[in-house]
Structures are given as structure tokens and as C-alpha cells.
Hints:
14 helices, 11 strands, globular, alpha/beta
Amino acid sequence: MKKMKLFFSVIALTLFLSGVFAMPFAAQAVELKFGHVGAPGSLFQISVDEFAKRVNAQMGGEVTVATFGSSQLGKDQELLKKLRLGTVDFALPSTVMSSVVDVFGVFEMPYLVKNRSHMRAIRDQLFWSKLEPAVEKQGYKIIAVWENGFRNITNNKKPINAPADLAGIKLRTPKGEWRLKMFKSYGANPTPMALSEVFVALQTGVIDGQENPMAQIYSQKFQEVQKYLSLTGHVYTPAYVTVGAQKWAKLPAETRAKLQAIAQGMQEFVYMKAEQLDNDLLEKVKGSVEINNADKDAFIEASASIYEEFGKTVPGGAELVKQAVELGKIYK
């Protein structure tokens, strides 16, 4: 009898201890990795870090977000592959999405987006119903639309006032088909290149110039290796908080809903920071580069062929452009 009591006591103690030691591990939050290409001080880095801060504060016992900027986890195309493999949980692609889904080329159309109010309207009335579903067919899901920004041109040859000034200039672009076509039509010699490679290419003269929003220009220190900044504002590029559809689906529905709500709740914060950076950083580079305001009407006039080709070659492209333009008529 004593042996039996001792046996059951040992069993009970074992079960109790296993439960005690298992509890901390069961309660441990899942870490989600957010990779992006932005350098310290960029809008990408500010946005992603703020998202992580909010998630960790609100959901720290459930999930946490760890951020990896400056292409630590890969360049844009590598990050997209890792999303599908499930080795990265979030990424923030921009122009590269037009290489994944043709219809995303709408955001490569010059001067399509007039301002951030216009972008809000496009996001709410067109993006979620017409663009995001196309991404899901490729194995991704976009849970929020943030910003890369209004793009301007820097170079070491001369001020860019009109498209003709770009003739022969070796200009770095992101890896997007329509950006290449646009600058070719202006007479430039566009060269696709990862953002992390651009500074050295400018410094060594492999390329003459590049085009990016002010937040990317300044955080990448392009003003240190460029002579001219031309305020063309030729394209507005959103940035997309993107996940791999398969891995995302494995998270509990309640967790997914919370993460998406936080990501979408970030949108106004991102727009506010972007506008602030546009103004502040322009002031900061004034002593480093010669700045000019480009003739935007000349660029708009030279862009007609890009709109025509997009409308003819991308299914639904003409109608999407028409609807986006219509939404912008109330904005100056």
C-alpha cells in the first residue's frame, strides 16, 4: 500500500512540475520578423519601428514584431520570396509590386496621384477592391497601404527642368517595368538597381543620378555624392505592408485582425511623417545640392505615351487610370 501511495505521489508531482515548467513556454509570445530596405532615418524605418512599437505594446503577450532595415533580410525581391517561404513575416515593397502584378503599374503613371488626399481616395475606393485581390493570387496579402512618397531626381550632370534635360543621363530606377519605360521615353538611360547599391554607384560614376522621395534621398545620403536636386514629383509611390498568404493564414483569426487593425491605424501617422520629412529634409540638403523646380507641365505632356501603352497592354488598366483620375478632380 505504501509503495502504491509513493508511486501515485511521484506521478502527481511529476505532472505538477511539468505543468509549472511548461507554463512560461506556452505563454511565450510569437516573434514576427519585419524586413525592409529603408536606412536609419528613412520613412520606411520610422514607419516600421512605430508599427513594431504599437504591436509590442498592445499584443506583447501574444506576438511581438522585430524589425530589420537596410536590407538586412534581403532586397525587395528577396524579401518577397521569403514572405512566400515563410522565413520573413512582413515586408514593405513599393515599386517592385508592379513586377509582381501588372495592374500595380497604375502607381507608376507619372503625375497620377495629385496629393495625399487623392491617394486616400484611391486607396479606399479602388485599391482594396481592384488591386489587393490580384496580389492574393500570387501568394501574398497586403494588410495596409503606407507610403514611399513623391519622387524627385538627383544627378551630377545638370539641373533637370524638362524631359529633354534627361537625354543620355544614366539614371538608377527601382526594378519596375513602367519606370524604365517612362524614363526611356524622356530620353534618359535608366538602369534598374537595388537601393542598397545606389550610393556606391553614384560615388564611382557608374550612374549619373537617381530618383527617390526626399526621405530616401536623405537617409541614403545621396546629397553627399550628387550636385543637383530637381523637384519633379514625377511619381507618387505607395508602400504596402505585405505578408505571405500561407503563413498569415496560420495565425489565429483574432491575431490577424489585431495586426491588420494596427497596420491600418498607422496610415495617418505615416502620411503626417512623410509630409514633415518632405519639408524638413529639403531644408537640410539646401547647402549640399543645387535645387530647382522642374517644369511639371512639360513632363506631364511628355507622359501621354506611357498612359496610352499602359491602357492598351494591362487588362483593365485604362479603366483603372480613368477612375483614379476621376477621383482626383476635386484636388488641386
